[in-house]
Specification:
The protein starts with a strand and ends with a helix. A three-stranded antiparallel β-sheet has the order 1-3-2. The radius of gyration is 26 Å and the shape is elongated. The chain is mainly alpha-helical and 156 residues long. The chain has two domains: 87 residues, Orthogonal Bundle (Multidrug-efflux Transporter Regulator, Chain: A, Domain 2); 58 residues, no CATH class. The protein is 65% helix and 6% strand. The chain has seven helices and three strands; from the N terminus they run βααββααααα.
């Protein structure tokens, strides 16, 4: 089956101009042209998935272009392509680790606001956060620690 650039753009969640840019950058080396129009075939989607993945994982266009050039050379570049993919995987894993770190802070703030809403005030929750200069993420206190500290406060 054949697809227009608009159809493929919609399927990929990008604009037609993005696909035109990819083509101009040499990232779509096997796309056919009929009467000057780009025509995509079913077999192009395997390549489009790889391209979409690399772009969406923030691989720079320059590196994607290098990958495309290597792929066109065939089996003699398998090791080099493997290395590029390994580098991208390392980058993705570092991003996941960084986002996990920030997710902890977001989860703390989620917990914080749930507790403050339930108590009707932030004051009862503020004491559980970090009060000293640090960029470390706040930690959600264990359930029993939070309850124990509240009991001590109410006895005073």
């Amino acid at each position: 089956m054949s697809y227009s650039i608009s159809q493929v753009a919609k399927m990929m969640g990008v604009t037609p101009s993005t696909l035109r840019y990819y083509d101009q950058e040499g990232l779509l080396p096997h796309i056919k042209r009929v009467n000057g129009m780009r025509v995509f075939e079913d077999e192009d989607f395997r390549w489009l998935r790889v391209l979409n993945c690399l772009k969406n994982t923030k691989m720079p266009i320059k590196k994607i272009r290098k990958y495309v050039e290597l792929a066109q050379k065939g089996d003699e570049t398998l090791q080099e392509r493997y290395q590029l993919i390994q580098e991208q995987k390392e980058y993705i894993l570092s991003q996941i680790q960084e986002y996990q770190y920030y997710l902890q802070e977001i989860e703390y703030k989620e917990w914080y606001y749930q507790q403050a809403i339930q108590a009707g005030s932030e004051e009862s929750v503020k004491k559980h956060g970090s009060n000293h200069a640090t960029l470390e993420v706040d930690r959600i206190p264990e359930e029993h620690d939070f309850i124990q500290q509240d009991k001590v406060k109410t006895k005073k």
